[in-house]
Amino acid sequence: MRTGRKPVPAVLKQLHGFPGHHKKVGIEPEGRGSISPPAWFDAAQRAQWKYAIKHAPFGLLTGTDREVLAIWCVAAVEHARAVLEVRKLGQVVKTREGNAVQNPFLSIVNRQAVIMLRAGAELGFSPAARASLGTSSLISDPENDVRPGAKSALDEYLEQKPDRLN
Question: Is the confidence at residue 40, as pLDDT, over 60?
Answer without folding.
Answer: yes
